[in-house]
Amino acid sequence: MTGFGKATGNAGNNVISVEVKSLNSKFLELNLRLPSIYKDKDLELRNELNKNIERGKADFIVTIEYAPDTQKSAFNQDVIKQYYNDFVRISKELKLETKDYLSMIMRLPNVLNTDRTEADPKEWKVIETLTKKALKEFNEFRSKEGKTLMHDFEQRITSIKDSLKKIEKAEPGRMKLIKSRLSKNLEEVVPAAQVDKNRFEQELIYYLEKIDITEEKVRLRSHLDFFIETLRDADSNGKKLGFILQEIGREINTIGAKANDASMQRLVVEMKDELEKMKEQTANVI
User: Fold this and answer.
1) Tell me: domain 3-70+120-141, CATH 3.30.230, correct?
2) Residue 219 has what pLDDT?
3) Are residues 7 and 137 in contact, defined by beta-carbon separation less than 8 angstroms?
4) Residues with pLDDT less than 70, the chain
5) DSSP bridge partners of 95
6) Domain residues of the chain, as ranges?
7) Of 238, 241, 281, 250, which is closest to residue 55 (Cα–Cα)?
């Protein structure tokens, strides 16, 4: 599911920002971007994120804006001055003409100041607190999206149920029409006087049993109710919902195969349309 959460705080005069955002994905993919001094906290943060983000392609970003008075110069001035003095002294002793000392000095060790090599415990505590706040906001965002998805699912399940009711109303007429059509087709081939009515009734009953959709209707209604029940469960059931939709699709397809009636086929197509839209959305459900 998509989600977004951000928290900002201070550690001394430095401003720390923690951001969590995710896009839809069938699996959990974590991408952490941390200041170099906190790289050793990667595993600890991943464990915390795993507890809160079950699915999605998620980015976790920590940024620190250091106050101007806390930032060091990019150059180690004392070292550069020492190198320069040494170059001047050696040049005089050896009577060298070159004066381009700076280009040589910048290639020497310890000329540039490096970042801090150790994490500040107080600063890390702030990051931990902000991480929890950002994750809380992130999950609230996802919860709102989940409620919207839930409402959409409920509407589509209701639409399928309405189509099923229309199919049930149309079924008696379908059976009468099929009986009439079969009788008429038989009369066109065999004179009525030569028809064995008992045998015809037996074959007719056998054929009507093959196209009967009573069991499919019962199972479909059961699957639809189970989908809503699972949807409202507090546990994470995204994959389970996908499996139930597969069963719903199987029953709808069977009804369509047995329908042998244009009006019922149209209703089946409408149900399939709603089903496909739900299948697309289950990829967003955790």
Assistant:
1) yes
2) 95
3) yes
4) 1, 68-74, 112-118, 175, 179-180, 182-209, 236, 284, 286
5) none
6) 3-70+120-141, 73-112, 143-282
7) 238
